[in-house]
Amino acid sequence: MREKSSNIILIGMPGAGKSTVGVLLASKISRNFLDTDLVIQESQGRALQDIVNTEGQAGLRILEEEVLLNLSLQSYVIATGGSAVYSEQGMTHLASDGITLFLDADQATLEARIHNLSMRGLVRQPGQTFSQLFNERLPLYRKYADIIINSTGQTQEAVCAKSIAELRKNNVI
């Protein structure tokens, strides 16, 4: 599907395991790891929730798109923020040298993993429930996914193993 030097991009809802699985995956396949949420926080010198509180969800989405469009990496595992899929330009840029894995977990699993939504830095409309956010984003994750990894009820190690198997099957690693 892609060259073996391609990036591996992880997308999914908050709580899907992008960062944790990304670190494991990068370690097991000897690649560097980058979390775009951490890049945003470092560049702004504050937490995502602080950005949402002061600039709103639109402000965070603008910063996120800038980060995505400015990435120029090779042979990385990249964990995106859950809202990265709102940026068609950003996702197209990532896909230009990468394969996208959607870590797909059901809503109940995600809600069980996320303990404090108000501190998570979620990009959502005021008053929007997690369920509404989940239903809004699901078609976008599927749109950009080259590979879908079902992570419901799976340990992070199992999701990593499934990801490696799929990447090998698609001749990415």
Keywords summarizing the entry:
Rossmann fold; 50% helix; 5-stranded parallel sheet; alpha/beta
Give a structural overview.
The chain is an alpha/beta fold and 173 residues long. The protein has a single domain, classed as P-loop containing nucleotide triphosphate hydrolases (Rossmann fold, 3-Layer(aba) Sandwich). It is built from 7 helices and 5 strands; from the N terminus they run βαβααβαβααβα. It has helices at residues 18-28, 36-44, 48-70, 88-95, 107-113, 130-144, 156-169; strands at residues 7-11, 32-35, 76-79, 98-104, 147-150. It has a 5-stranded parallel β-sheet, with helices on both faces. α3 packs across α4. It is globular and about 45 Å long.
CATH architecture: 3-Layer(aba) Sandwich
**Uncertain stretches:** none
| Highest CATH level, the class | Alpha Beta
Main structural class: alpha/beta
Spatial order of strands in the largest sheet = 2-3-1-4-5
- Please indicate the percent range of residues in DSSP E strands (runs of 2 or more): 5-15%
Going by CATH, the homologous superfamily would be P-loop containing nucleotide triphosphate hydrolases
Order of SSEs, N→C?
EHEHHEHEHHEH
Rounded Rg: 15 Å
Shape: globular
How many helices in DSSP terms? Answer: 7
Question: CATH topology, what is it called?
Answer: Rossmann fold
